[in-house]
Amino acid sequence: MAEDQNEEKFDDSDVQKDTDFAVEIADASMLEVQLGQLAVANASSSEVKQLGQTMIDDHTKANEELKTLAQQKNITLPGALSDESQKHYEDLAKKTGTDFDKEYTDMMVKGHKHVLDKLKKEAEKGNDADVKAWASGKISTIEHHLMMSENAQKAVKDSK
User: Fold this and answer.
1) CATH superfamily of 14-158
2) Quick one: how far is CA 129 from the chain centroid?
3) What percentage of the chain reaches a pLDDT higher than 90?
4) With contact defined as beta carbons under 8 Å apart, do 105 and 147 qualify?
């Protein structure tokens, strides 16, 4: 729905790709928070619980920053998870114990690689200077999240 509203506002403008980026990142970041909440509640590994809490803290902050930027730019962000993200959440919510830990860390590694790629592309090729700057400023945090996710993933695999 947010994408449709933005297309009406920015359809023929240079910042359409920037708005699409903002919507996609907002969805991914909301998912990170909700999956982090599941991890804190359902993970069996303390390292996975800690990773979940970091995701809650950092992505809540990033979401607030992105909302502020979007308001300044008249970009509509989603208020709820996309259908695809909701499915990922529901699939993970069914898991417990080490199955949960493995699936969660796999999702974190894959998700952070995807988001990192999107951030780097926006930082390099975005048309809106403020959105580019925001993306550029998040790269090191997401690189750190990816490293944490890979470490937790390895710890989960090693514990079996």
Assistant:
1) Ferritin, core subunit, four-helix bundle (1.20.1260.10)
2) 21
3) 81
4) no
- pLDDT digits over 17-69, tens only? 888 899 999 999 999 999 999 999 999 999 999 999 999 999 999 999 999 99
Asked if 19 contacts 95 with a C-beta cutoff of 8 angstroms, the reply is no
Q: Residue 93 and residue 76: Cα distance in Å, rounded?
A: 28
Listed in sequence order, the residues at least 6 apart from 144 whose beta carbon sits closer than 8 Å to its beta carbon are none
Supply the DSSP symbol for 81.
Answer: -
Per domain, the residue ranges of the chain are 14-158
What's the whole-model pTM score? 0.88
Please tell me the distance from the alpha carbon of residue 71 to that of residue 2, in angstroms, as a whole number.
13
> In angstroms, what is the C-alpha Rg of the chain?
16
CA nearest neighbour of 122 among 51, 27, 17: 17
